[in-house]
From TrEMBL, chain A:
Protein name: histidine kinase
Reaction catalysis annotation: ATP + protein L-histidine = ADP + protein N-phospho-L-histidine
Compositionally skewed regions (Basic and acidic residues) per UniProt: 431-445
Segments forming a coiled coil: none
A GO term for molecular function: protein histidine kinase activity
Source organism: Actinophytocola xinjiangensis
Pfam entry (one): HATPase_c
Alphabetized InterPro entries for the sequence: HATPase_C_sf, HATPase_dom, TCS_sensor_his_kinase
GO cellular component: plasma membrane
Signal peptide: none
GO biological process: phosphorelay signal transduction system
TrEMBL record, chain B:
InterPro entries from the UniProt entry: DUF742 (IPR007995)
Species: Actinophytocola xinjiangensis
Protein name in the entry: DUF742 domain-containing protein
PANTHER family with a match to the protein in the record: DUF742 DOMAIN-CONTAINING PROTEIN (PTHR36221:SF1)
One Pfam match: DUF742
Length: 524, 128
């Protein structure tokens, strides 16, 4: 392509010369051959000169034309090159649109850069128009996606709250008929069905990236979290929990963790034979609490196991739109929670041949198990402190004793990890008027305090609010005020009271009253 | 009796309704009928300290056993546990079966105070 013009120029000139020489030779020679006089010769010469002139003129003209052709060819060559370049640019543009932009649009992935128009105005205009169109389609899709998600979340919430209402009504029903086993049975069945409904509805919301509709306001022991999760699956009776590490899960993550475990338990129960147990073991490790769920199924091949692990560990996000025709919401929900809350979930092959799901709840999300609400309530209401109460206090690391600014988890962690029964002294112990512990951070699987086991009176006495105020007793921080006593509770108390006439306390009371009455009578 | 700790935000207004993550059917494995029909709400329960608490006992079982260290009526234990009475009957009757709890149905006749004493009490009360 460098310079094609000189190559044909030489033969053309040579041709021209040869034709001129040929014609001139013919003109000069032909009179000698054919001529018969001077006139004839002159005529021949004149005709020959004319012929030569014509030939030369023709040759010159053709040379001019050839030059013109060369220029034209050059121009065309340039044009071809331009067109080829434009063609290439447009091909690249088209390729980019088809192979990069459109897939990005359909998959909703990151938007790749638009191609370079390379100075071609038409292409540039097309690219701009295509970019605008794509952006519009993208925006439209986002808007519709958001709208669908919002609708799904709203509907899911409605279903979930109606399920919770059913559970609430079922609970009320039992309270209204406290002695009727049939009512309890019906209530249990209702409650169980509604719990599964609520779980499914909550799964929808979780897949749309929404926070669950239900929240708990108190840390919950890990074993109760697992039992709570078991209650939300169909085959809750097959769940067998072993181990109680004495760790509670922070209130903030109780509901997410229950939901995660419920989905994993549901998967495990579904993928193992219906007569087998789903084994759950709980452990306390240095970095938190571990829940292991084993199923007795047949496991998965390597490719599917890898895929399942990616989904459950949150590495591969699965949205509502990716579920397919037979939606499997379990693991995508687990993955969504993992991404949001920072649990760690892994799925491996189980030693039983099936799968084992492992959930790690990091230390930041765990707390020492608080003394059971029932027991604190019963024990802190006791008016006269028992001497046996002291050992508990000395062995208790109260998070409220932590100096300000110290993380409570860190504060309690050494005790948890060392596992010693005696806790170190709090950094800045505050004098206490009432030594009953609000929390017990020791990882003690036995929540009930042994020192109380002694001679408890038959009936826990209630302090009257008035005497409490007069005595200036400090109410425990975090302790809830005693709820107003209902007639029903009072009746129960009285029934129990009257039933317990053989106890020493009652005898004392009767003696006191009769003694007072006798005194009165004597005084009068 | 509304539990201020464990409740659904929906149930804030609810009276006598305490929600707990662990449902009643999980506590009893779905059984609603007690294994024995002698336990009434007013039945007095007492724990047998000799029998060790089983390792697999749930928290609710442990709580019930801890509450019954003294003599406590079933209804009152249920109130403390914030569980329905009929549910606690099922739990308690299991514990009676396993020997952890013993029943004291009512006051023994011989332990009742005599009529003289009761009259004195009555008089004393009237004069207060």
């Amino acid at each position: 392509m460098a310079s094609p013009t000189p190559a044909p120029a030489l033969p053309r000139r040579a041709g021209l010369l040869i034709s001129v020489v040929g014609v001139a030779a013919y003109v000069l020679v032909s009179p000698l051959l054919f001529g018969d006089g001077l006139d004839g010769t002159l005529w021949w010469v004149a005709a020959g000169v004319v012929a030569v002139g014509v030939v030369v003129a023709g040759a010159l003209t053709s040379a001019n034309t050839a030059r013109d052709h060369d220029a034209e060819l050059n121009r065309l060559d340039d044009r071809i090159r331009d067109l080829e370049r434009i063609c290439e640019t447009r091909r690249l543009t088209l390729e980019n649109l088809v192979e990069a932009q459109l897939p990005a649009l359909t998959t909703g992935g990151a938007v790749p850069p638009m191609p370079d128009p390379a100075g071609d105005e038409v292409t540039a205009a097309v690219i701009t128009r295509a970019g605008a169109q794509l952006a519009r389609v993208r925006d439209d899709r986002h808007a519709r996606h958001d709208a669908v998600q919002a609708a799904v979340v709203t509907l899911g919430r409605k279903v979930q709250s109606s399920a919770h209402r059913i559970q609430e009504e079922a609970a009320r029903m039992v309270h209204r008929h406290p002695a009727d086993a049939d009512v309890l049975h019906t209530s249990m069945r209702l409650d169980h069905a509604a719990a599964q409904q609520a779980r499914n509805a909550q799964s929808l919301a979780a897949l749309c990236g929404e926070w669950p509709g239900q929240q708990w306001h108190q840390a919950l022991p890990l074993s109760d979290v697992v039992r709570g999760a078991a209650g939300r699956i169909t085959a809750y009776q097959r769940v067998e929990v072993s181990g109680d590490p004495g760790v509670a899960v922070s209130a903030r993550v109780v509901e997410p963790l229950i939901h995660v475990l419920a989905e994993l338990l549901a998967n495990a129960a579904q993928s193992s034979p219906p007569t087998t147990q789903v084994l759950v073991s709980l452990r306390h490790v240095q970095r938190g609490a571990v829940i292991e769920i084993d199923d007795g199924g047949v496991g998965l091949d390597d490719v599917r196991l890898e895929r399942v692990r990616d989904i459950a560990s949150g590495r591969r996000p699965v949205g509502l739109a990716d579920l397919g025709e037979i939606p499997q919401t379990g693991l995508p929900v687990v993955g969504a929670y993992v991404r949001r809350h920072g649990f760690r979930v892994d799925i491996t092959e189980s030693v039983y041949g099936g799968l084992r799901a492992i959930v790690l709840v990091p230390t930041e999300m765990t707390e020492p198990v608080a003394l059971s609400g029932v027991l604190t309530h019963a024990l802190t209401r006791r008016p006269d402190p028992l001497p046996t109460r002291e050992p508990i206090t000395s062995g208790t690391l109260d998070p409220l004793d932590a100096p300000p600014g110290v993380d409570l988890v860190e504060f309690a962690t050494p005790v948890l990890s060392s596992g010693e029964s005696t806790a170190p002294e709090p950094p800045s112990p505050r004098p206490r008027s009432d030594p009953a512990p609000a929390r017990d951070p020791r990882p003690d699987p036995e929540p009930e305090p042994e020192p109380y086991a002694g001679d408890l009176p038959a009936l826990p006495r209630r302090r009257s609010r008035r005497t409490e105020a007069l005595a200036g007793t400090v109410d425990w921080p975090g302790e809830q005020p005693e709820p107003p006593q209902s007639a029903e509770a009072a009746g129960q108390w009285m029934g129990a009271f009257l039933g317990a006439t053989t106890t020493d306390m009652t005898h004392d009371l009767i003696r006191d009253i009769t003694h007072d009455a006798t005194q009165d009578t004597e005084n009068r | 009796m509304a539990d201020p700790d464990f409740h659904d935000h929906v149930a804030d207004h609810a009276d006598h309704f305490a929600d707990h993550p662990v449902r009643s059917y999980v506590i009893t494995s779905g059984r609603a009928r007690p294994s024995r029909n002698t336990i009434r709400p007013e039945t007095l329960l007492r724990v047998d300290p000799e029998v060790p608490v089983p390792v697999s006992a749930s928290r609710r079982t442990r709580e019930l056993l801890a509450l019954c260290r003294g003599v406590l009526s079933l209804a009152e234990a249920a109130a403390y546990l914030k569980l329905p009475v009929s549910l606690v009957v099922v739990i308690a009757s299991d514990l009676v079966d396993s020997g952890h709890l013993s029943i004291r149905s009512g006051p023994p006749r011989h332990a009742l105070p005599d009529r003289d004493l009761l009259e004195k009490v009555l008089n004393g009360l009237r004069k207060l």
